[in-house]
Recover the amino acids of this structure.
């Protein structure tokens, strides 16, 4: 490559290339003493070298180096030297805690849920609950990297997920504390009404199955079995539509029910509406204490569309106050709708579609 300066390129004249194939150095390499190191080149123009030999437990060094390189690399979330250094100091606290145990895990495959819970208790006593949760979040994000996550035992992964804290900034920008509490109270009241309405309809269906129901119970039982809401031909056209929707709402969510459900779920999970409307029905319950599911976040770019989260369930009477409890409640309320429409989404609802003068029943999910 010898051509330089103005005039060295132009139409029909390709740019000069290096004579040999270019193979850029990887982020993980060997330090002066042969130890494994991670080379950091930040978006802020600053550089650093993180030496794994400064950490205890050598069996962790290689997978940790790969994970730390991913976490601080171009597709990772830590792209300044300050943020990378903060994660490094947190990693040091984690590794020194593990090394100080009577029987430390010599490699990632030997990490257990008891180790995670012990670290939480240790950091809570040392620096407070909020700092402990922040450290566990940082460790969880690091151990989620491809270079190390497959080495962890499932129970250790589940314990890290359960301990991932929720952010605390929801509602601070747009609402005062009083306005936000009023919004939550109104949403909870509406959701409680929806819950009680469908429970009453299900009770009528159960009574009919037991041979103790009335004519309305028989009608709801037929709807529950077929998914068809009968057309009510008496009365005016507007009255017919209104009463048909009210009949369907004894067993199914209607589109008008989605607003309070989504508002309350957004508030409790601290996620935006774009994410909430695409919540999956598939989930996993962890020790009866939390629900785990995978979110779709399209605004984060094609390499960060999915995120596994865990939401606290809490006791049954607090279902409207915990994100996991509300998720499971909605999952139950939409079970019949989901069975009829075949959707894999959490939110499924019944609606009327008008085509000319004909009213059709349809499902959205």
């Amino acid at each position: 490559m010898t051509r330089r300066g103005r005039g060295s390129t132009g139409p029909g004249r390709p740019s000069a290339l290096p004579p040999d194939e270019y193979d850029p150095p990887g982020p993980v390499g060997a330090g002066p003493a042969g130890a494994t190191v991670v080379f950091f080149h930040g978006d802020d123009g600053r550089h650093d070298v993180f030496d794994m030999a400064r950490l205890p437990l050598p069996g962790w060094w290689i997978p940790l180096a790969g994970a730390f390189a991913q976490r601080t690399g171009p597709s990772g979330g830590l792209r300044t030297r300050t943020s990378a250094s903060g994660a490094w100091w947190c990693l040091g606290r984690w590794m020194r805690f593990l090394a100080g145990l009577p029987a430390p895990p010599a490699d990632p495959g030997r990490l257990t849920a008891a180790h995670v819970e012990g670290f939480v208790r240790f950091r809570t006593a040392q620096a407070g609950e909020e700092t402990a949760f922040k450290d566990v979040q940082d460790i969880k994000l690091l151990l989620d990297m491809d270079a190390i996550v497959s080495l962890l035992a499932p129970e250790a992964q589940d314990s890290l997920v359960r301990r991932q804290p929720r952010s605390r900034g929801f509602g601070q920008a747009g609402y005062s504390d009083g306005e936000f509490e009023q919004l939550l109270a109104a949403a909870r009241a509406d959701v409680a009404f929806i819950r009680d309405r469908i429970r009453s309809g299900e009770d009528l269906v159960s009574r009919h199955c037991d041979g103790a129901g009335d004519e309305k119970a028989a009608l709801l039982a037929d709807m529950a079995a077929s998914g068809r809401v009968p057309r009510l031909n008496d009365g005016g056209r507007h009255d017919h539509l209104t009463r048909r929707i009210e009949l369907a709402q004894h067993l199914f969510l209607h589109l008008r029910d989605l607003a309070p459900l989504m508002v309350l779920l957004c508030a409790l999970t601290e996620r935006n509406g774009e994410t909430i409307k695409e919540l999956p029905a598939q989930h996993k319950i962890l020790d009866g204490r939390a629900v785990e599911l995978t979110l779709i976040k399209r605004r984060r770019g094609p390499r960060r569309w999915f995120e596994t989260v865990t939401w606290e369930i809490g006791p049954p009477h607090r279902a409207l106050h915990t994100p996991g409890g509300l998720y499971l409640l909605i999952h139950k309320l939409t079970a019949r709708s989901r069975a009829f429409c075949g959707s894999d989404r959490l939110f499924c609802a019944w609606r009327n579609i008008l085509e000319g003068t004909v009213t059709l029943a349809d499902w959205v999910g």
User: Anything to note?
Assistant: The longest strand covers residues 290-296. The two ends are 59 Å apart (CA to CA).
